[in-house]
Design a protein that fits this description.
Shape: globular
Strand order of the largest sheet: 6-7-8-3-9-10
Strand content: 25-35%
Order of helices and strands: EEEHEEHEHHHEHEHEEHEHEEEH
Bound molecules: adenosine-5'-triphosphate
Distance between the termini: 33 Å
Largest sheet: 6 strands, mixed
Helix content: 25-40%
CATH architecture of the largest domain: 3-Layer(aba) Sandwich
Structural class: alpha/beta
Amino acid sequence: MIEIRNLTKSYKKHTALQDVSLDIKQEMFGLLGPNGAGKTTLMRILATLLTPTKGSVRMGGIDLADAEQIRPIIGYLPQYFHLYPQLTALEFLDYVAVMKGMNRPSERREQILYLLEQVNLTDKARAKIRTFSGGMKQRLGIAQALLGDPRVLIVDEPTAGLDPEERVRFRNLLNQSSLSRTVLLSTHIVADIESSCSRVAVLSRGQVAFAGSLTELQACAEGKVWEAELGEREFAAYKPHEIVSARRTGHGMLCRIVSESRPAGDSIPVRPTLEDGYLALIGGDRRD
Ligand SMILES: Nc1ncnc2c1ncn2[C@@H]1O[C@H](COP(=O)(O)OP(=O)(O)OP(=O)(O)O)[C@@H](O)[C@H]1O
């Protein structure tokens, strides 16, 4: 469905994306990566808001450069987006629908009411957006992205800042949306990928460090995850990204460690999680 070939984007001297190639089918595809890895840059290119320096993208066989053909098939929820606080949910969605070229009022009305129901905001249809919680705003954001029934939905870090209940609700909404379209979800939150995506790519410093199934990503930490009880000095000797979790015990800290080498002393190898796989892969490349 989406074929990304040798995509490069430079902002003056800084190269944010370098030679990125990916194939995304009709599926829910996750994009992981630390801060500054280039996720937003890639998403903005796919949403036709940025022009790549080099490379090409085709969606459903249409070249991304063909803006007139490509725009109607894309729905985009940016990381930060502006909602008009004085408008009601209905007024806002009607405004976006008009912007998307939906000219028939009856068609707009029908789709808006359907989407408000999908995102569970029917009872807030006539409430002003300024009264909405963060989760309600994100759900309204998804509704605006789904106006026009796009074949590709691009969502950039949509669950950051949501409470656990809203995050689960939002993930379910994305899962539901992915039944009939391609969804590309960018996030830092490994649990979001785990619960929703069939495949994932990891960007690191603008390059594809990994692309494959969740099981394959998990396997990147095979033989590199350990549980060990560490004293204060041993604990301090590890790099921050190597200790995934630590719990105080009577004698020190019981730590989960992602490391190429077996920790000294009493340590036992443990089965990696998806997060371990991600951490083993990006390791010291993390900038945050
Ligand atoms: N308009 C710009 N001009 C110059 N540099 C930019 C611009 N936009 C992004 N960058 C740089 O490009 C790199 C990639 O940024 P991008 O926002 O795509 O990363 P990201 O993976 O989405 O990060 P985050 O998770 O923090 O949102 C960063 O080093 C960033 O500082």
